[in-house]
Specification:
single chain, 206 residues
């Protein structure tokens, strides 16, 4: 049975850290397809700076020129309003594995890819228990040592649904890249070349 990953985020802009994590998860877990899903309006987060179309284009420039396993999915942008990962995951599973109606057939073939900071808030996500019934979390470990569950309010059974991915770290965030663009700083090394050119041409984040 095919194995799938869901990697969502504002991607405002997508950067090399996102790309490295997607590669690491796909390689480590043997994923056939990773759906890159630019988020719509995520609850509890500020609205993206770049518009939906620009973020979608930057995701295509960052991910799809590099690996055929990555598929850009715009369903949250088309959906409008507040988007929940639980809804997106359910839709993807119904479309791509409709025969696997038993959650037991899905739970080891679908994963959510995210950074380690996701663990601190995952218990607040809509239907987070339902998510873990049909998918597991593929989390990028920030450090080899330490206690990754220290601030995670997850039960032992929920923690068992977490798999850690060792991805080459890159100390940058989309917020820092936007700040570098607006101040005239150097950001080209932190985003894909095509995305860097697009940001410059379109005057994004100025």
């Amino acid at each position: 049975m095919a194995k799938f990953g869901l990697f969502g985020g504002s991607f405002d802009p997508p950067h090399i850290g996102h790309l490295r994590l997607a590669h690491a998860a796909a390689d480590a877990l043997g994923l056939d397809t990773v759906f890159i899903v630019p988020s719509g309006h995520s609850p509890g987060k500020h609205a993206p700076i770049a518009d939906d179309y620009d973020r979608l284009l930057m995701c295509e420039m960052t991910f799809t020129d590099d690996d055929c396993r990555f598929v850009i999915d715009d369903r949250e942008l088309r959906r409008g309003g507040i988007s929940y990962t639980a809804d997106t995951l359910r839709e993807l599973q119904e479309e791509y594995q409709p025969e696997a109606v038993n959650p037991a057939l899905l739970c080891n073939n679908w994963c959510l890819i995210a950074g380690e900071d996701c663990l601190e808030s995952f218990h607040t996500w809509k239907d987070h228990r339902a998510i873990l019934r049909t998918a597991f979390l593929a989390i990028a470990r920030r450090e080899q040592e330490g206690a990754p569950f220290k601030h995670a309010q997850l039960s032992p059974d929920e923690r068992a649904r977490v798999r850690f991915i060792d991805a080459e770290p890159i100390v940058v965030s989309s917020t820092e890249i936007r700040a570098a663009v607006s101040s005239g700083g150097d950001y080209a090394g932190f985003v894909a070349p095509a995305a860097a050119g697009f940001i410059a041409r379109e005057g994004l984040y100025l």
